[in-house]
Amino acid sequence: MLSIYCRDLHAGRACNDEHLCEDCADLFDYARKRLAGCPYGPDKPTCANCQIHCYGPRQREATRVMMRYAAHA
């Protein structure tokens, strides 16, 4: 989903090896680190149904916007 979002909206930005701009690559790394430390592991519920909010407000909003866009792309 992040690849779709970045490709469509950030095509003019410098990309790294995964073809993500720096902002999207940072969000991807943040999400990967947070999910790796999740106490629920593979049984993690969706964020809306989770008691532990592991994303900061800025990252949570960025993820919400990205997922909403990619779901309709």
Account of the protein in words:
The chain has three helices and no strands. The model has no long low-confidence stretch (mean pLDDT 85).
Features:
mainly alpha
Topology, pairings included?
Layout: H1 2-9, H2 22-36, H3 57-72
A few lines on this structure:
With 73 residues, the chain is an all-alpha fold.
**Count of individual helical segments:** 3
- Over all CA atoms, what is the radius of gyration? 13 Å
Q: Assign the structural class, choosing from mainly alpha, mainly beta, alpha/beta, alpha+beta, or little secondary structure.
A: mainly alpha
Helix content: 40-55%
Rough outline: globular
Q: Beta-strand percentage?
A: under 5%
Order of helices and strands: HHH
Major sheet characteristics: none
- Could you list the spans in which at least 5 consecutive residues all have pLDDT below 50? none
Q: In angstroms, what separates the terminal alpha carbons? A: 9 Å
